[in-house]
Amino acid sequence: MIIKLLRRLFGRNAMSVILLVFQIVFLLIAVYSIGERFYLVYLMLIILDAVLVVYLMNKSEPDSYKMAWIVLISILPLFGGVAYLYVKQTQKFPKAKDAEYQKIIKNHLVQDNDVINEIKTASPDYSNLSGYVYNSGLYPVYRNRSAEYFPLGEIQFEAMLRELEKAEKFIFMEYFIISKGYMLDKVSEVLMRKSREGVDVRLLYDGIGTGLRSNSLPFRELEESGVKCRAFNPFTPFLSSIQNNRDHRKIIVIDGNVAFNGGTNLADEYINRKERFGHWKDTALMIKGEAVWNYTVMFLQLWDVRSGSGDDCQQYFPDVSSFADVPFDGYIQPFSDSPLDNEPVGKLAYMELINNAREYVYITTPYLILDEEMKNALVFAAKKGVDVRIITPHIPDKWYVNMIAWNNYPKLIGSGVKVYEYTPGFIHAKGCIADDKTAVIGTINLDYRSFYLHFESAAIMYGCAAIGDMKQDFDDTVRVSHLVTLDDCKNRPLFKKISGDLLNMFAPLL
Length: 510
What we know:
The structure is a single chain. The chain has a 9-stranded mixed sheet, sandwiched between helices. It has a 7-stranded mixed sheet with strand order 2-9-7-6-3-4-5, with helices on both faces. It is an alpha/beta fold.
C-alpha cells in the first residue's frame, strides 16, 4: 500500500495536481501574511514565467511539447515556471554518464560495407533508413539469419524457456516491469540453476517500473544463487537527476547467438496467466545470427552505466562462423533509442515507413498520443490512397491515455485512416508494417515518452519472412477488433469529449 502511494505521489500527473493545490494555498497564505509585499513575489514569478515562455518558443523541441508547457505556465503562473525547471532538471543524464553510454556503442559496433552495398541495390529507400539508423543511432544493419515472430506473449514465453535451457556461457535479461508470479518463478528456477552451473547470468530492471512494484525478496534469492541483479535508475523522489529517463526495453540475449525483443515484460498478465484488462495481446521477435551482437551491446551499455563494471564487450562477441552456411533471409537492424542524444530514432523510423508506404501501413500500439508531425504523416498517407490502419486497446490500462486517443480519432478517421479497437481486451503490441517489405517491432509506443524520454529498443526488418507472419497476425487481430466510425466519435458522452480536449493539451507531459 505504501509503495503504491509513493508511486502515485511522485508520478508526473500527481505532481501537476499537487502544484495546483500548492498554488492555491500559497496564494491564500501569501495574501494573508505579507499583504502588499506579496505582489513583489508575484511579479518576480511572472517575470520568470515570461522568460521561460520566450526560451521555450526558441528551443529546439517538438511544438506540441513546448505548447503544453506554455499552457501549463499560463494556468499556474505561480508554480508553472518552477515546475518546468524541476522537470527539466530531472530528465537529463549527467554528462559523464552520457559520454560513457555513447562510448560503449562507438567502440564495439561497426557497419559491414558489403551489407550496405547489397541493400543499396535491393532498396534505395531502405538503404536510406538503415544508413540513418547507423549514422545517428550507431547501430549496424546485418543479413538476417533467423527471425521468428510471436503473436502472443505466452508463445514467446515457451520459446524463451527452451532457449534459456540451452545457455552455456551467459544470459542477459533486461525488463521494465518484473512482478512476482508464475512467469517469474519459472524463469528464476532456470536462471538460478544456470548460474550454479557457471553461466554468467545478469538481470537488469527499471528502478520505477519494477522497483516500486515488488519487494527485494525475489532478487535476493536470485543473487544468493549467483544471479547478478541491478536496478537501472533507482527511485529517489525529488533528488534523482534522471527520474524521467526510464529503461522501457525488454531484451534477452543468450550466449550472443539468440535474442528476444518485444513488448512482453516479466509478469503474469503478459502471458495471460493473470487477467487485468481482458485478454492481453503482446508480440515479440526472436532472432539468431550476427545481428544479436547489437542487443548484446545494448544490454552492456546500461549495465555498465548502472554498475560501472567496465566489461570488455568483445568477450561476449558471438561465434559468427556458426552462421556462415545459414542462408540469409532479408536484412535486420536491431537498435536502441536513447533520450541522451536528442535524436528520436524510433519516431523517425516510424515516420519513414509511413511516408514511403505505397500500398499500406499497419500499426499496433497501446498508446496513441500523437504530435502534429506524426498525425499529419498518417493523415497524408491516407489521403494519398495508402491503406492506413491502427489497432489500439478496447480496454485501456490508463483511462486518460484512452481519452487522448479518442481525441485523435475524428481527424484520423475523417481523413481515411482506419482505427480499430482490440475487442477482447488490451493490446500491448508495438509494431509497424509497410507494403509487405519493411517492419519495425519492439518496445516503442506512439507517444511522447517513448519517442523522447525512455530508453527503447526495436528491430527494423526488410525483406524478412517474419514480416509476412506479422501481417497475417495483424489481419487476424483486425477480425476480432471493432472498427471505430465517425458516428462512434460523435456519440461519445459530452463529458468524455471535453475531458479528451483538456487532456490533449497536456498530452506530451503525461
